Amino acid sequence: MISIAIHGGAGVISRAQMTAENERAYRADLERALDAGYAVLESGGTSLDATVTAVRILEDSPLFNAGLGAVFNHEGINELDAAIMDGATRKAGAVAGVRHIKNPIELARMVMERSPHVLLSGAGAEEFALEQGVKLVPGSYFYTERRWKQLEEARRDDKMASADEDIGFFSTVGAVARDRQGNLAAATSTGGMTNKRWGRIGDSPIIGAGTYADNASCAVSATGSGEYFMRAVVAHEICARVRLTGVSAADAAKDVVHKLLVEIGGDGGVIVVDKNGELSMDFNTEGMFRGARDSRGRREIAIY
Fold first, then answer.
1. Which of 94, 105, 145, 235 is 20 to 30 A from 174, comparing alpha carbons?
2. Domain residue spans in the chain?
3. Which of 213-242 are b and which e, b meaning 16 or more Cβ less than 10 Å from the residue's Cβ?
4. Domain 3-302: which CATH class?
5. Kind of pairing, strands 279-283 and 218-224?
6. Catalytic amino acids?
């Protein structure tokens, strides 16, 4: 079975504050990403290609905290993180703190496939990008008025926040997929936290925390309070439980998200695909922007 799931963030998504216009816009971009990723799988493409295709579309949307819609750090700069992992080989690539990469998920894949490393950061990652022929974009490319207002508000309150001013959620994006060959992949991309300082990096580019894939168990992409996802090593924890205990990926995800994370104060959600292509999407918040599609006919977009 071929299958793909995507997410666009989890958190306190108030029904009262989610206008019909906003909901239509979010659903439209989620549908575009989901269907584009599935089309790759349907045509015989790899799970890696499918996840990158889906995440790239979400990075190009101003609605999500990744790529174009990324939040600003304390200095008013967009710093982007992304990671990808191949379940067939357990090879992985990630970038952190890049400022001029239009689609960080594509650079993360280049790190995996064209370098001996897993994680590159900052100026070094961008130097690598230039060597690979990637065209850098000016910092102004990532500017959106909504994100700038969020930064101003956070500065006034002297706090870090990953919540939108009107609908509070962790709007990291991600995708997981299984292709016709039975190979799994996971990909995640984020702009981090509004008003973040000191080069803060969250769980998204940390292999095992926000992103993990292993054909023997499952593939996971996470969204939420990054510090807690790192402390619980959430993505790897879910896959390890599947591999070592035989529990289903859905049950492992549910237990980790609703028990392990909650016990240490973390909130957010995960999307998971197991080795058979079964999809699960679990979260301990009011909602999570998400979508799932498989070759058995499932196709859904959901928020709450």
1. 145
2. 3-302
3. bbbebbbbbbbbbbbbbbbbbbbbbbbbbb
4. alpha beta
5. unpaired
6. 172
